[in-house]
């Protein structure tokens, strides 16, 4: 008996997903609740698990867009599959007997992937790269070409083509004008749509300031070892900026608000969204109730969310909501930028790289580690006085960490 594995409901607003990766290959034996595939929506990546033990029969291919409830694969009773694995082990010594076992497999029906036939995922890779399946040796069950075989063949293909390339003039290779088309992922399409919507539907402006990072750097240098020993995490800049933002939001509540129809919704809590660069695009997980957290708690939460983002393990709940966003372009070397608001929020703070620059301090020119900061805001709800005042308040708190820690 076989059962169909269908795309499960993954959120109220999600109507379709993309089959991003098969974890198991067609014909593999799977266990109950074992992860067999990864599904990607416009918000997050989800794991598809086996609902019974048995043999996997794929229906959809990697890259397919599937509606909620669509059949992804089937799992057939696994009684025969383990047996086929045991037989070669028992008859390993007599080579002739092994050949007799292999022969009937090759004669099975067309739906079976016999020796030299690629799995759906492998076939797709080979077709994209123009690799002849006959030239690839399969290492899967019954000699089937697996995805790993196809990837390896893809890597070795340029070496095989080298002799032919030598006959071609070098100028032709140097002047090649190749292009390739890659389908946009659901996440990238959603990000693109949201950014254009924000630009078109908000009165976005950006105000700038600069922060002398020396006081925070001195404080970190003095206590970083003790901090890590006590709390088990490093003391980074993000926790200081998050604390400073939370304090400044108390003084300028409009920066923490949003427009809902003809009403302004003010929040008496600070759910801070942290922009994180993930393998499949930018994601923005949320530090809930950051205003009530210590520096150590913020650091631990940031590490946890960043790790989940890089492993594509973030849930929709961990990315839904948020009242204010912080993004750090400085980790990529950005000196200054105008970040785009993360709708429906009304403001976003951009951090940048730290550069030693000469500044005037008490009538003298000194060298200090300086960072430009930028606040992009929706002018429909936040006035210039509030936006500038908020950024100045953040600057004051960062340049005097004692005030930040004491909340004054």
Tally the helices: what do you get? 11
CATH architecture descriptor of the largest domain:
2-Layer Sandwich
**Uncertain regions spanning at least 5 consecutive residues:** 79-114, 156-168
Beta-strand proportion: 15-25%
CATH topology of the largest domain, by name, is Chloramphenicol Acetyltransferase
Q: Report the span from N to C terminus.
A: 69 Å
- What class, by secondary structure content? alpha+beta
Shape: elongated
What is the total number of structural domains? 2
- What order do the SSEs take from the amino end to the carboxyl end, as H and E? EEEEEEEEHHHHHHEHHEEEEEEHEEEEHH
State mean pLDDT (0 to 100 scale).
Answer: 81
CATH class of the largest domain: Alpha Beta
- Residues in helix, %: 25-40%
Task: Offer a quick outline of the entry.
The protein is of the alpha+beta class and 408 residues long. 36% of the residues lie in helices and 24% in strands. Strands 9, 12, 15, 16, 17, 18 and 19 form a 7-stranded mixed beta sheet that branches. Strands 1-8-6-3 form a 4-stranded antiparallel beta sheet, with no helix packed on it. The protein has a 4-stranded antiparallel beta sheet with strand order 5-4-2-7, with no helix packed on it.
Protein architecture, described:
The chain is elongated. The chain is an alpha+beta fold and 408 residues long. Mean pLDDT is 81; it is low at 79-114 and 156-168. It starts with a strand and ends with a helix. The protein has two domains: 2-163, RNA polymerase II/Efflux pump adaptor protein, barrel-sandwich hybrid domain (OB fold (Dihydrolipoamide Acetyltransferase, E2P)); 187-406, Chloramphenicol Acetyltransferase. It is built from eleven helices and 19 strands. The strands form five sheets. Strands 9, 12, 15, 16, 17, 18 and 19 form a seven-stranded mixed sheet that branches. Helix 3 runs parallel beside helix 4 (147-166).
């Amino acid at each position: 008996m076989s059962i169909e594995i269908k795309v499960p409901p993954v959120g109220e607003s999600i109507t379709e997903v993309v089959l991003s990766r098969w974890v198991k290959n067609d014909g593999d034996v799977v266990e109950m609740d074992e992860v067999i595939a990864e599904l990607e929506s416009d918000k997050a990546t989800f794991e598809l698990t086996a609902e019974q033990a048995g043999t996997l029969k794929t229906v959809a291919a990697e890259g397919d867009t599937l509606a909620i409830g669509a059949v992804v694969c089937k799992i057939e009773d696994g009684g025969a599959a383990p047996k086929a694995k045991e037989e070669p082990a028992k008859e390993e010594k007599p080579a002739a007997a092994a050949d007799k076992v292999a022969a009937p497999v090759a004669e099975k029906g067309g739906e079976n992937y016999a020796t030299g036939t690629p799995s759906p995922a492998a076939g797709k890779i080979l077709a994209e790269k123009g690799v002849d399946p006959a030239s690839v040796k399969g290492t899967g069950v019954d000699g089937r070409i697996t995805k790993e075989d196809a990837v390896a063949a893809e890597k070795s293909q340029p070496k095989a083509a080298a002799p032919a390339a030598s006959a071609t003039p070098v100028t032709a290779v140097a002047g090649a004008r190749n292009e390739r088309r890659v389908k946009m992922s659901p996440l990238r399409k959603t990000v693109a749509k949201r950014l254009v919507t924000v630009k078109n539907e908000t009165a976005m402006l950006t105000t700038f300031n600069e922060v002398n990072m020396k006081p925070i750097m001195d404080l970190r240098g003095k206590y970083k070892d003790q901090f890590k020993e006590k709390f088990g995490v490093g003391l980074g800049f993000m926790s200081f900026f998050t604390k400073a933002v939370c304090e400044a939001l108390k003084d300028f509540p409009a920066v923490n608000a949003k427009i809902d129809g003809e009403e302004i919704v003010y929040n008496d809590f600070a759910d801070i969204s942290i922009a994180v660069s993930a393998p499949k695009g930018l994601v923005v997980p949320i530090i809930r109730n950051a205003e009530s957290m210590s520096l150590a708690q913020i650091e631990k939460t940031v590490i946890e969310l960043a790790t989940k983002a890089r492993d594509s393990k973030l849930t929709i709940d961990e990315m839904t909501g948020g009242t204010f966003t912080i993004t750090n372009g400085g980790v990529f070397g950005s000196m200054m930028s105008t970040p785009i608001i993360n709708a429906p929020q009304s403001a976003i703070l951009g951090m940048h790289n730290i550069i030693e620059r000469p500044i005037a301090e008490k009538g003298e020119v000194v060298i200090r580690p300086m960072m430009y900061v930028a606040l992009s805001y929706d002018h429909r709800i936040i006035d210039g006085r509030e936006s500038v005042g908020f950024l100045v308040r953040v600057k004051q708190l960062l340049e005097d960490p004692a005030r930040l820690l004491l909340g004054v």
